[in-house]
Amino acid sequence: MSITAAGLGRFLIASLATLVVLLPAGWGALAVWFQTGGGKALKSAAVAGWACFSLAVLAALWQGRIEAGLATFAVVLACLIVWWRRIQPSNERIWAGDVAMTAQGSVEGDSVEIRNVRNFDWRTTADCTPRWETRWYRLDRLCSTDMILSYWSGRAIAHMLVSFGFDDGTYLAFSVEIRRKRDEGFSEIGGFFKEFELSVIAADERDVVRVRTNVRGEDAYLYRLLIPPEAMRSLFLGFLDEANSLVTTPRFYNTITANCTTLVYHMMKRIVGYLPLDARLLFTGYLPGYVYRVGGLDSRYSLAELRERGRITERARRADASPSFSADIRRGVPDGT
Length: 337
Known about the structure:
With 337 residues, this protein is of the alpha+beta class. It is 43% helix and 21% strand. Strands 1, 2, 5, 6, 7, 8, 9 and 10 form an eight-stranded mixed beta sheet that branches. A two-stranded antiparallel ribbon has the order 3-4. The longest helix is centred in the N-terminal third of the chain and has 34 residues, at 2-35. The mean pLDDT is 91.
């Protein structure tokens, strides 16, 4: 009976130690994969080396050398964490063309100058005429704020744009995006492992909306936000402050904590004082339900009606490169008045 109890105890201890090793071992494998340079061959070799070490530690645990195995793993893991913490974001990389520049701005009274406004003419995802422009706006002519959600991976996942309208009929959209290196694609998992820097893109709607609906084939919806003029102004300046900050102090994108939704949430929280946390902040596709709940959308309509009337996909495809693109996509969208 005592031998059986002792054997069971060793089994439970080894199982617990295995769990202690497996989770950081999995994290380490992904960290090594996403942060080892030199191409897939070198990445694969580095991950294989880490996997062999982790398996050797697990073997030691089940051979009864639990203390030695855990101590060895802890030392090597500590070295990996030191290496990880030394990986810093940078603005000095060879960037993909659509994020080669990021917005910068300056404010003098009600006058705003924004540099590097993107106004690309997209023909395909790989073929476009790039244009980076300097534009001027007046905060005292700011009259609307719209949330645009573009769905690219099911109903739960969407990219959010915030577009500001002025009383002369012009619009400027802000998009918080990953800053990809040239020939690099997006990876949700990579977004947890310092794969991308964070960028704030200021863009003409004929660029940033049209490329999603007309070129990538995404499904887009526009909702007029019901926020007072002071909050509109604060949110506009918040995007500008964030853009300027990233120019001097780059940050990593994070799939959960620093993305197109969470940055806007924190900006609005600073403006209104309190916003409840909600799972829909993580699953951006369901964000309209959250905004409706906190009173940010026109309550004269149901959420389903706002969604139906706010679907701009077909209108954007018909408008295409029309000079009245922004007005065309808003036909039939409730404007809160």
